[in-house]
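Q: For a teaching session next week I want to show students how multiple molecules come together into a single three-dimensional assembly. I've collected the sequence lines for a complex. Could you give me the predicted structure tokens for the whole thing so I can convert them for display?
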Amino acid sequence: MAKRKFDKKWEESGAEYVANYNDGIFNEFIKILDKKIHEAKDMLIERFNHIASQSPDSAKYMYENHTMVGYHEEEGIISALKHGTIVIGQLGLAEALQIMFKFDHTCKEGMKYAKQIEQLFLDRTSEFKKEYKLNFGVYYTPAENLCKTAMNNFKRLNPDFEQEYVTYLIDKNGNKIDKKYFTNSMHVPVWYNCDVFKKIDIESELTGYSNAGCITYVELDSTCFNNIDAIEKIVDYAMEHDIPYFALNIPLNRCAKCGEPIYDEEAKECPKCGSKDIVKLGRITGYLSTTIEHFNAGKKQEFEHRVDHIGQSIFNGCD
Amino acid sequence: MLRILDITAPDINNGTGIRVTLWVSGCTHKCKGCHNSWTWNYNQGKIFMEDQDEILHKLADWLSRDYVDGITFSGGDPLDQNNDNLCELYNIIKWVRNNFPKKTIWLYTGYTKEEIDESDNYMRKKVVDSIDVLVDGPYKEELRDIAHCPFRGSTNQRIICIKNNENIKK
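A: Of course. Below is the structure for the complete assembly, covering every listed component.
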């Protein structure tokens, strides 16, 4: 049975009232966001022009050997670089909605506002693409480093601001936990208890707005290598629901001494050689790794807060 | 009074495919190393007869989804119950059969199939006859090998096909 770490307190019924009340704030937010998107565009163009102004000698081997598609010597390296992607990254949709409405896109009302925000990103990047003839896009980023840096800066600039689900969380024992990260892109908050299908339902409503990349992952509680049917059904469900990039996070353990894969998640020692040195392999963002040590405190905490999206209690008989 | 500890879904560890698992309270086998020892107590969980509507509604919500393969009864031990409880359990199974004929029914018990067949507990046999797959036998810590025994804890436990439900993959 899946362990709950934090509870969500807002309900769909109450959401409507609060939402109407805060439309003014939302409109104000959209105006500021629009301005910031334009600033981001200007910064990206400045950066692009700086890079494009370099001599082909900056990467001589690549240009001379035609590894860069579209490169024409007489036009300079811009002829190759213009085919690249220029993206505006996005993180913390959940927190932005929480600040404005005290709920997020895990409820229907929140999703309405989430779509308006994403539509603005999509509209603007599409316009930039036409206007500047460059591959502008919006990228739903895990922000490996920025997730913490942005939260630090947010707290520094808003010293008196405190809000549950944004700057802190209350755990099952009533302890207040200082939150050190912004939630990955438009993801469902990592601590939110929902099953794989609901997570796919929610995130697939927003993936279509990203024209430069996104990921949806689900956390499974076992290696499930004996239950390929289940994996197939989950993957099929994601594919049917407009998820372009889907990842399953499963616990994978391996003996550090003899390399034997260990399928028993609770095993304390290797069944083959008896070594107690067991390496846990997992995905924090993007790639599989054996340690979370090289991630910053924000991403580490986010990783700790993640809940399994399998075996959710739908009827708790023991309240 | 049959008591229900929890219903969990989607479940991928207690039977093939995607399942809904109903956890029945109470077990007297008390296997050493049981990973659910808190479920042994019979006097916990919601009383099925009192919360019947809510429980069946939640089960129906999940069992009516295409991607759900079926239901699993676990616990506790759903067969380690008095006669009245076994009758209630049998009624739940019948309800699943009537309303969701395509879904498979798995059941976990600490008894072996032989023990069930040889005993004169009629109702217990009737429950077993009405399901599709029985996972039998007590958990033996010294025989733990979850890597090679899908959906089980120790090597003495078996997956026994009871009904030839066409939806069961061998």
